[in-house]
Amino acid sequence: MTKQPIEYTGKYTSLTREDIIEEVRARLSKKRFEHVLRVELTALELAEKYDIDREKSSIAALLHDVAKEEPDSEMRDLVISENLDLDLLQFGSQIWHAPVGAVQARRDFEITDEEILTAITYHTVGAPEMTGVEKVVFVADYIEPGRDFDGVKKARKLAEKSLDKVIKLKIRDTIVDLIERKKKIYPKAIDSYNAWIPK
Ligand SMILES: [Fe+2]
Ligand SMILES: [Fe+2]
């Protein structure tokens, strides 16, 4: 058997890494599932490099997109029943899947560790202040080897030097892209922008 990149201690969930992978595989298309696996491997590398908890990074990375293919109606119901930010309802699944994923991680995967849950919640728009695991997942989702956008090479290079620099790049580029495409901007994305970007 090939060696697994990490073995869980049981501290954060009684599920094994393989259990989580199988459940995530069942919920996602092949393409997105493969993205998730690449995000996890990237997260493990970054965690190792920056001395951040690898087990928590792995769990959060594997679960970050767990809600991504949930029907909109299901996500909308969870936003309301779980008392999530009601501003969310002005937006769409692109924004919902992150906080809803954290709800599912708690409900379906027994995750109670707050940092794992917030890493899932913040993975799309970031947050004004971010912890190590939150940063790792946010950056890994942006630079995993399957990503192909203008500037991805630069982002990967920057990630060798500083997670914070990649975070700034992702937050800024996300806002610029939304403006260029004349899309609405979720207020929490602006909060992240205001905290990270202006000099
Ligand atoms: Fe996502
Ligand atoms: Fe993702």
Measured distance between first and last alpha carbons: 51 Å
Oligomer: single chain
Average pLDDT for all residues: 96
Bound ligand species: fe (ii) ion
Give me the strand/helix succession: HHHHHHHHHH
CATH top level label: Mainly Alpha
Shape: globular
Strand content: under 5%
Helical percentage: 55-70%
CATH fold title: Hypothetical protein af1432
Helix/strand-derived category reads mainly alpha
Reported for the largest beta sheet, the result is: none
Low-pLDDT runs: none
Question: What topology emerges from the helices and strands here?
Answer:
Layout: H1 17-27, H2 30-50, H3 54-63, H4 72-81, H5 93-109, H6 114-121, H7 132-143, H8 152-159, H9 163-180, H10 187-196
Please describe what this structure looks like:
The chain has one domain (17-196): Hypothetical protein af1432. Helices cover 63% and strands 0% of the residues. It has helices at 17-27, 30-50, 54-63, 72-81, 93-109, 114-121, 132-143, 152-159, 163-180, 187-196. Helix 2 (30-50) runs antiparallel to helix 3 and helix 4 packs across helix 5. The longest helix is centred in the N-terminal third of the chain and has 21 residues, at 30-50. The N and C termini lie far apart (51 Å). The model has no long low-confidence stretch (mean pLDDT 96). Bound molecules: fe (ii) ion (2 copies).
